């Protein structure tokens, strides 16, 4: 009877462990680490990270290399995924560089053990970790402060150009206003001078006729 309880407890423990999901949040363009660590009592021969039945990363030499032998994620010409470190430390976390919105989803890490102790078949892949990656946009204010816009341009340079343009326009408007005032004053001065000359001539004419 006690053996049945032990077996039932073991099954429940394995099921609960396999259903445990770790949530990770990352911003586009950043680095995301999907944590996963194996047992210290077993050696890992092969590591497979999957997403929706798609194999994202395969490593058949985790004890000596963090390199993924295949890569299913869109990479834009560069390697974006690798393991965190060799499995000597049992750390088989997946590192995603330059995260994109398309990377959002649930990832599962399967491992193949060396069958020490007889717990697994040599060719059996067992689920070790489940991680859900949620990609969220970063703080717009921080992106603007950093000087890079969505199109890859420099926002600080654009702001400087805008300020210079506004200052130049204000200076041009002020100069035009001053020129207008001067022209108006000159015209009034000329009209006043002509009026005085005409009045003086008329006065001289009247004086001459009276003599």
UniProtKB/TrEMBL annotation:
It is found in: Membrane. Keywords: Disulfide bond, Glycoprotein, Immunoglobulin domain, Membrane, Signal, Transmembrane, Transmembrane helix. It comes from Betta splendens. It is a single-pass type I membrane protein. GO terms for cellular component: membrane. PROSITE patterns: IG_LIKE (PS50835). SMART domains: IG, IGv. This is Butyrophilin subfamily 2 member A3 isoform X2. It comes from the Eukaryota. Residues 1-17 form the signal peptide. Its main location: membrane. The chain crosses the membrane at residues 160-184. Residues 19-126 form the Ig-like domain.
